[in-house]
Every structure is written in structure tokens, then in C-alpha cells.
Amino acid sequence: MKGYVLQSKGKAAWQDVPVPEIGPYDALIRPTAVATCTTDIHLIKTAAWPKAIGKVIGHEGVGVVEKVGSMVKDFKPGDRVVMPSAGSDFRHYRSQRGEAKYHQDLNAYFSDDPTIGGVFSELVKAVDADNRLARIPKGVTDIQAVMVPDMLITGFTGVEQMHIRFGETVLIMGVGPVGLMGVAAAALRGAGRIIAVGSRPHTLELARQYGATDIIDYKKGDILEQVMALTGGEPVDSVLIASGGRASDTFTTAMRAVKFGGHVACVSIFFDDENVTLPMNVWEYGGMEKRLTGVLAQDGRDFFERLLLLIANKRVDPAPLVTHVLHGWDQLDEGLALMGSRNPEVIKVVVVP
Fold it and tell me: Which residues contact 278 (CB under 8 A, 6 or more apart)?
């Protein structure tokens, strides 16, 4: 079969790969929709995770079960499923402490197992199917469901780490697809005021649709000054970092904007920054509490299926994130190029094989 393989730093291409053999707890999935991501672009450009070299890449996919192992109880051939996006090991003994996601033993990019790959292939091995696949409810489209394994789980996990209480004021820094899902999640969590930061008209309009009450265009002035102008000088209760830029500048703005006792959750990955510098006066030289948390998205069947239930019951609709749908595996390169193009009209690209 064909798979899209990271061959070396700066090079990924289609090549023949073996059909993966599944174990008793695994399943074989035929993708019906995959999404391209800026993480794919960074990975190809930098090969930042060396264990990904020589493997199929891609982490956002849905499909149909083709085959299951002898010990799989909850899935059968023909089921529509969301495929695992990360590599949480729910059979690791520390998962009993709620730490499964900190053990990425099943992640193609970190695993030593050459048979564990990504979703850009004609068939995909899903390890530990009962714990890591998620059944797609009736009425939920592939386009909606394929936004779950990264855009929704990342935005929603980040918002959980903000610890929002009813009626609070929150700041969402960045309204790309993850930030937009952060806006939607903050609204569902009961935020009274949601200040969204961006610049592209299309994403800013979507931010309002998902629940933003105020919009800040970072191209029109300093973000912190604009926030304080909106709040009358009052710090916000919590901040979600879902933007790019220089890490030190971004973290400093967030930490200055948030109240003492507040939470800053970062879902961005800053590949180009080795170090971050923060002025000590953002938390009174260590004498006052502000919480800065890096966020690893929660994955696994339970979280996926809860998010799918929100979609099925029309509490959130991620379909507007998808601005481009391409047809055929031969369009994957174009899908990656679009995600890397910085075209302001591109939010997410889906390829339907």
C-alpha cells in the first residue's frame, strides 16, 4: 500500500509501505477523511522529532474499521471512527493516576515501534482500539469529526486548564482553528466576556459566531493596551495562548493581562524559541500567584466521544473551520501546501481519499 512518509529533514513523499499487522487489541482503519496541519509543515521542515523519520505522518483522521483483533470488544468492521491523534498509553500503570497522556509510547513521532505510523496512508493501524478509537454518532459528518482529534481536543483541553467560572472575563490570544475552538469552549464553560485576538477578517467573524464578545486586532495596536481599554484597566480572569510570534513576548503579554490568582494556558508550540524570558514583576517577583501551564491535549476514546456528543447535539459545529476540501490522495501535497501558504482565507484543509 501507499503511505506518505517523512523521508528526511525537509522531505516527505508517497512510497510503498507494508500493510501493518495488527495485534489482538488493535484495529485496521481505512481513512475516509484526513486534515493537514501546521504541525505537519513544521515536522517536515525540521524533522524535530527524529523518531518520525521513516514513518507515515499525519495525525488528524477519520475512517472506517476494516479489521479488528481478536480481543477488541467494542468495534467491528464497518464502524465509522475517529482515529487516535496522539499516543497516550492507557495500559501504562501510571494511567491509574490519570497520567496516560504523559506516556506517549503509542505516538508515531515518539515511539520506537516502526509499525506505528500516522494517518496519511491507505490503511492505518490503531493500537489499543477499545481505548483509543471513538465511534462517530449518526448525523455527524466526516468533515465535522475530523476536526475532533486535534482542533477540538487542543482548544477544549486548553480551556479546561483556564478553570473558567460562570461570568468570568477571558482572553483568547489567537483565533486560528485551535483558538476558535477555544472561543467555543470558553462560551460553553460559561465565560461572561470573551476577548479574542486576531487579524484575519474571516477568522474574526468566526470568533464572533463561536461566542467572542469583543475583538482585538493585534495589527492595530498593543494587545495589552487594547485589553485594558476594554476592561477599564481590570486584568482578565484567564488567558489561552493559541498564537504564534516570539514566545517571550507572547507569554509576557498573557502574564501581564491575567489577574493574580488567574490561569494562563498555552496550547501553542514555539519551535523557533529555545528560551523564554519573563519579567519578574508580572507576579511581584515571585510573591504573588499566577499560574502558567503548558497544555498537552487530552486524547482517548472517552474525551473524543464526549466532544462528538457536543457536535451531535449541535452544541458546537467545527465544520466552518474547514475552508478547503480536496479529493484524492494525490491532493495531499496540495493540502499541505495550502496549510503552509499563509493564505488568509485558509483555516483548515481536509483531504477525502
Answer: 248, 251, 252, 255
